[in-house]
Write a structure and sequence with these properties.
- The chain is of the alpha/beta class.
- The chain folds into three domains: 137 residues, no CATH class; 123 residues, 3-Layer(aba) Sandwich (Rossmann fold); 337 residues, 3-Layer(aba) Sandwich (Rossmann fold), CATH 3.40.50.
- The strands form six sheets. It has a nine-stranded mixed beta sheet, with helices on both faces.
- Helix 5 runs antiparallel to helix 6, helix 15 packs parallel to helix 17 and helix 18 crosses helix 23.
- It is elongated and about 125 Å long.
- The chain starts with a strand and ends with a helix.
């Protein structure tokens, strides 16, 4: 037989120099492989080609066969029938190659080897052994001679299986612990919160990640029973243990929260401790496939302040919402804004017949329409650029689409801007709301849900006062219709505080300031605010709209108030920076019309509970419709005169509780006080 120019006499293997001739065979057989590998450009590759893995696997099979041969020969037993050595070797290698191909044991990435790969190796070896035993038995039956020693096949099978598996473990260990030693100091020592299967999958994915970012050095669990155990040879710590000692002992740089069973309080406690120790805090976003290591490692994201202030998910009455929304025409004003766009997203989940999006902001409305087209391609969505202040235009929209329900989120909301431009607050927040409310009655809309603000309570600025007057109008209109037995439209008002991440809120502002290297600007060190996430606020708007019978003002549970200075410091720490060292905090003074704290209720107001724990009803004294309507007409006429003092004086006459703060309009209050005295 000639292999690459070398003539091999098989019989001489047994008669003369066995080792020398076998060595020649191996050298010549693999010479082509190494030449091919040299010609193959391996640089810039993430993984070794499958043919290389197959070559290594077949080399192991060959060496295991030789090892078994020598082992049995040294003990006086004959593993292979000497006269059929070439045939036996060919059958042996071909059989293994066949089942390696069937089970594709070479297709897996060696450094990411798992139990699936172990099972493939086991099955390939089992069927190879089975086929060789069957061939052996057939030859015995026909020729009365064995090709292989059966015990030798079993020994060889064990050697081969262990070797195939062991070299994969060694390669995986090398990649995890030694490859990229130069980068090892840059790895972040991470503690994973959780000990369930998801946490283990997370650890495996992070250890196998390429390029690697984290080195998992332990796990954190609620149960004290786990502390005596280890996962992936790493210790388990208990939440009740000393956090500082754990960080010092394991030289921890990062905390990754992957356990969804811990409640919000436990999560906040972990984050507070982590920030105190100047650790980076990460969360794991939604993972659909925990066996996909790439998806797992890419899901680890930096914790944001929105995540820290999140509360437990809201339980919604989906059956009632479906009854109100499914198959209906829904109009959303201010649809391109933070609240309006989220209302649109949530409304679309209930399969309305048609959704009419109304806004005057061209680019945001266009962006929303593209998003909706992508996420709900089958939904019937109409985008209309229109100004709610133009009653004739809005009438034509109502006439054409005849909405069953209106969510009114269009408003001017920035306090300093409205303090400087009170006419715009009157035209948009008051006249715009009046236009929509009147048209809802005219076209017999079933429900009108108005989005209001906590700044309408004891207003200290023009924006809050304008929203409070709008509240009074829709309440008095509802009451007027009820008394005259003409009620076909139910008017519902929802009131809540600041929403995280909304346009112009402090969170996006602080994020931008941190990215720019600071300083973070805060108006006053003692200023506090209530916060909700946008999805939570909009869920409650939908829920309140469903439960409302009309005429109510629904107040949302905003949780505990947050000190803005604390919020800023946490955002700096979550960005991996140090307050006052990396990012300065600068106090600029209260802005015109701004309070130190916001209120959700008047001092004398009463509330009624609802079936939803986060929603209560504010019992308000409803004004006479003719009085409110007449005053609003006068106010709109004053708005056309652009006399700021006259407009604000009229607003204060409608709302005796409207007391300006940090504003030029405080003089009006001072004059009124002197006249009263």
């Amino acid at each position: 037989m000639t292999i690459y120019g070398t003539t091999i006499n098989i019989e001489s293997v047994f008669r003369k120099n066995f080792i020398k001739n076998v060595a020649k065979i191996l050298i010549n057989v693999y010479r082509l492989i190494f030449i091919k590998m040299e010609r193959f450009n391996m640089s810039g590759m993430d993984y070794v080609p499958r043919w290389v893995i197959l070559t290594i696997d077949m080399s192991i099979v060959s060496l295991s066969g030789l090892f078994t041969f020598f082992l049995l020969e040294s003990s006086g037993a004959h593993y292979i029938n000497g006269s059929s050595f070439f045939l036996a070797s060919l059958i042996y290698l071909t059989t293994h190659l066949l089942f390696f191909r069937v089970f594709e044991i070479y297709s897996g990435i060696v450094r990411h080897s798992s139990m699936i790969d172990v099972m493939k190796i086991f099955l390939a070896q089992f069927f190879s052994f089975l086929v060789l035993v069957l061939i052996n038995s057939l030859l015995v039956f026909k020729t009365h001679e064995k090709l292989y020693l059966t015990a030798g096949l079993l020994i060889n099978n064990l050697f081969t299986g262990v070797s195939l598996f062991s070299y994969r473990i060694v390669i995986k260990h090398i990649f995890i612990n030694y490859v990229g030693v130069r980068r090892k100091r840059e790895l972040s020592n991470a503690i994973i919160v959780g000990t369930n299967s998801n946490a283990i999958s997370m650890a495996n994915a992070l250890n196998a990640d390429n390029p690697r970012k984290f080195r998992v050095v332990g796990f954190l669990d609620k149960s004290e029973n786990s502390t005596s155990k280890k996962i992936l040879n790493q210790p388990i710590f208990c939440l009740s243990d000393s956090f500082e000692l754990m960080v010092k002992d394991r030289n921890v740089h990062s905390i990754i929260i992957s356990d969804e069973t811990i409640n919000q309080k436990e999560k906040e406690d972990i984050i507070e401790k982590a920030l105190r120790e100047e650790l980076d805090v990460y969360k794991v976003s939604m993972i659909s496939n925990w066996s996909n290591q790439k998806q797992i490692s890419s899901s680890v994201k930096k914790y944001k302040i929105e995540d820290l202030l999140e509360r437990n998910p809201i339980v919604m009455d989906n059956s009632s919402l479906s009854e109100d929304l499914e198959g209906k025409t829904i109009m959303v004003t201010g649809a391109a804004g933070s609240i309006g766009s989220e209302i649109v997203r949530q409304v679309l989940k209930f399969k309305p017949r048609e959704v009419v999006l109304v806004d005057q902001a061209e680019t945001p409305l266009h962006s929303l329409s593209l998003e909706v087209l992508e996420t709900h391609p089958d939904a019937d969505v109409v985008t209309i650029m229109a100004d709610i202040r133009n009653k004739d235009v809005m009438r034509s929209i109502f006439s054409q689409y005849k909405p069953d329900m209106v969510y009114h989120a269009a408003a001017y909301k920035h306090v300093p801007m409205m303090e400087n431009n009170p006419s715009q607050a009157i035209f948009t927040n008051i006249m715009g709301t009046k236009n929509l409310a009147d048209l809802s009655v005219e076209f017999e809309v079933k429900k009108f849900v108005m989005v209001s603000t906590d700044k309408a309570v004891n207003p200290s600025n023009v924006m809050g006062a304008s929203k409070r007057i709008a509240e009074k109008y829709v309440q008095s209109l509802h009451n007027q219709l009820l008394r005259s037995n003409r009620l076909k439209t139910r008017f519902i008002t929802t009131r809540f505080g600041n929403v995280l991440g909304s346009n112009g809120s402090v969170v996006p502002l602080f994020t931008k300031q941190i990215e720019q290297g600071g300083p973070i600007t805060i108006t006053h060190p003692d200023i506090i605010r209530y916060f909700m996430t946008i999805p939570e606020a909009c869920q409650l708007v939908l829920e309140a709209g469903t439960m409302g019978n009309g005429g109510e003002i629904f107040i949302f549970d905003m949780g505990k108030p947050v000190k803005i200075l604390d919020l800023a410091n946490k955002m700096i720490k979550l960005a991996g920076l140090t307050p006052e060292k990396d990012i300065k905090v600068q106090f600029t003074g209260l802005r015109p019309g701004e309070k130190l704290y916001e209120e959700l209720l008047n001092d004398t107001s009463k509330t009624l509970p609802t079936y939803h724990e986060k929603i209560t009803i504010f019992q308000d004294q409803i004004e006479d419709f003719n009085y409110i309507n007449g005053n609003i007409h006068e106010l709109i006429n004053l708005g056309n005169s652009y006399s700021n003092n006259d407009m604000v004086r009229k607003m204060k006459a409608i709302l005796p509780e409207f007391k300006s703060m940090n504003s030029t309009f405080q003089k009006i209050d001072e004059v009124a006080l002197k006249q009263a005295s």
